[in-house]
Write a structure and sequence with these properties.
heterodimer, A: 405 residues, six-stranded mixed beta barrel, two-stranded antiparallel ribbon, 12 strands, 19% strand, elongated, B: alpha/beta, four-stranded antiparallel beta sheet, 7 helices, globular
């Protein structure tokens, strides 16, 4: 009956209960929305960097980190090319020869990184061909084709089929220059690549700087999923004496972004929960003070303090039990709506978002466990919010209440 | 058999500043089955005396024995249990739980006593019947008249099968008809079932029905009569 009494007590003041339930539901909904939004944004940044730039795992010569360039080429490259057939979780590999250089157009010149690649392999790893906005993927230009980003094309004031000159140093530090023609212009989701990477065929660059076809200083591997990252890395390490690194080791900003995102989500949750906490305390305190005489009477006829405490806590819990699932459902439906509608379109902020490697369209992302976790957090908040009003209730003196009768 | 025994009972408010003796050296006993009215002018100490008998207030001096058990030295928790098991309370303003029906209000005290559902059902049905409010069993207090509410309150007080019922000005808010009906019920219960009632009142209609009248003036018993 105490359960039933607690439930009935909630509905004594329907308007007040409705207000506090709405506050809880809106709070929960807003957390779901914000967390989904954050996950989507951070997920897009990470995914774009991972899929279109770093890949899951890269292999370099140990000396490459201290002196990037042609001097430290990977050892036994033919063996590294076979990893996809030997290690089941590897999806694709792209072998690269990366060298710093200059690209010059009739109008200007820029410092860039030249990625000499096998077009088919690179397409499999970074989906580079999918980002073309003009021209084609190394097909129409027979001799020395080049791909560069829209941003670089604008800076160099070149277009498809325009001629540019690439200048690099060979192994002996001799300056080598070659004429290339723009085959395609792309717009990658990686700001780093858009800002300073151009792609040429490996055979063209190796001819220019007099290196064999087997000269590579980077191997990039795309895995089937992220789950087997460490395991795959360890398997690769066992097979090669080159330096094997995961994308997290290559770009520590991944961890930083995820940590800052986690902190942001926690801060938002804490702020919303604090607001709810004070709302719950205020509401329950009012409910207790309104029932001073009744609680005093209950104490007088023999209701134990513990049962009164339990009843007040139960009332608070019930408010949250009703409201939190409503908020969770509203959050779920909001996410579902945006999924069905093709995401939340923030194209008007696309420029700013691209600076960070994000997407202009947000697809809400939230783990199922977040719903459960949020429910627990609301319950904890309700419990904390119930304590002070419940203490107030049990400390009422029955005699003082009787005197008021 | 003595149900209540008070020995040299005193209640002094503000003992260290300006002492006020609300009850002064009261000694009395109440036998089982009595229908007793404690009367006197406002401020004479009727309610204070009732509160001390009911274990809601602590005496400054003297002792309160209920059914041979001294309640003076009991802890707050022990007193709560004692009130729950042995004392029935009826308040001037009824004080029913507004969200519960008449029947649920009566059963609530038995829930606190951890009685089983069947016992509660039988007891509440019986009391509703005897109080003449069986038809009102599913109504909430706000749907009942003052007299009906006070009958529910009496039924609630009796539901726990107490040693006695303390009623503080039970008819103060009732009209004549309701007062007479309530007194009829309580007198019948007293006569047929030997239920002990102790009223604090200055309602002449209650005084006229009482079998024993204890008059208090300035916290002291000035007369104790059985008309």
């Amino acid at each position: 009956m105490i359960l039933s009494l607690a439930w009935k007590n909630i509905w004594r003041s329907k308007r007040r209960s409705f207000v506090v339930m709405s506050a809880v539901a809106i709070g929960v909904w807003s957390i779901i929305f914000m967390v989904s939004f954050y996950n989507s944004m951070i997920g897009a940044i990470s995914r774009n960097s991972l899929q279109h730039d770093y890949s899951h795992i890269q292999i370099h010569h140990e000396g490459y980190l201290s002196e990037p360039g042609l001097g430290f080429q990977v050892k036994k490259p033919s063996m590294l090319m076979k990893f996809p057939s030997q290690i089941p979780d590897i999806e694709a590999v792209s072998a690269r020869l990366i060298v710093n250089g200059m690209v010059a157009s009739p109008k200007t010149n820029l410092g860039i990184q030249v990625y000499a690649i096998d077009p088919a392999d690179e397409r499999a790893v970074t989906a580079l061909s999918g980002f073309l906005t003009a021209g084609d993927y190394f097909t129409n230009i027979k001799r020395n084709p080049i791909l560069l980003s829209q941003k670089l094309a604008e800076k160099l004031k070149v277009k498809v089929r325009s001629k540019v000159v690439i200048t690099v140093q060979d192994l002996e530090a001799n300056i080598r220059a070659g004429a290339f023609r723009v085959s395609g212009i792309f717009h990658s989701k990686s700001p780093r690549i858009n800002n300073g990477v151009i792609y040429v065929r490996h055979e063209d660059l190796s001819k220019l700087i007099n290196l064999p076809d087997t000269a590579f200083n980077e191997f990039a591997y795309l895995l089937k999923d992220n789950e087997s990252l460490i395991e795959t890395k360890q398997m690769m390490e066992a097979k090669t004496n080159n330096l094997v690194r995961t994308y997290r080791e290559i770009a520590p900003e991944f961890d930083m972004i995820e940590e800052s995102s986690t902190i942001s989500k926690q801060v938002i949750t804490v702020i919303v929960m604090l607001a709810l906490l004070f709302g719950i305390i205020n509401t329950m305190l009012m409910a207790v003070l309104e029932r001073t005489k009744e609680i005093g009477m209950l104490r007088a006829i023999g209701m134990f303090k513990s049962k009164i405490f339990f009843m007040i806590v139960l009332e608070t819990f019930m408010i949250s039990w009703v409201a939190a699932p409503m908020g969770l459902m509203a959050g779920f439906l909001t996410n579902l709506y945006f999924e069905k509608m093709g995401g939340l379109d923030l194209s008007q902020y696309a420029g700013a978002l691209e600076q960070y490697g994000g997407d202009a369209i947000f697809y809400p992302e939230i783990a199922q466990s977040t719903y459960l976790l949020l429910m627990l957090v609301v319950m904890m908040t309700a419990l904390i919010g119930a304590i002070y009003p419940a203490i107030k209730a049990v400390n009422l003196k029955p005699l003082e209440a009787i005197r008021k009768l | 058999m003595k149900v209540i025994e008070l020995k040299n009972l005193s209640k002094i408010y503000n003992p260290e500043t300006i002492p006020v003796r609300a009850i002064n050296d009261v000694t009395l006993s109440v036998e089982e089955g009595e229908f007793t009215a404690i009367v006197g002018p406002s401020g004479c100490g009727k309610t204070t005396l009732l509160n001390m008998i009911g274990g809601l207030d602590i005496s400054s001096e003297g002792s309160v024995d209920i059914g041979g058990v001294s309640i003076n030295e009991m802890s707050e928790s022990e007193l709560t249990t004692f009130r729950l098991q042995h004392i029935g309370f009826v308040f001037q303003a009824y004080n029913l739980i507004p969200v519960l029906t008449a029947k649920e209000n009566i059963e609530f005290i038995m829930v606190l006593q951890n009685r089983d559902a069947k016992t509660m059902q039988e007891r509440s049905d019986d009391l509703l019947d005897r109080m003449g409010i069986k038809d009102q069993r599913d109504r909430r207090p706000s749907e009942l008249s003052g007299g009906q509410q006070q009958r529910v309150a009496v039924a609630r007080a009796l539901a726990s099968r107490p040693k006695f019922v303390l009623a503080d000005e039970p008819t103060a808010n009732l009209d004549s008809g309701s007062t007479e009906a309530l007194l009829d019920i309580m007198a019948k219960l007293n006569k047929e079932e030997k239920i002990t009632f102790i009223f604090s009142t200055h309602d002449q209609r209650v005084i006229d029905r009482a079998k024993r009248i204890i008059k208090l003036v300035d916290g002291e018993i000035v007369s104790d009569e059985q008309p």
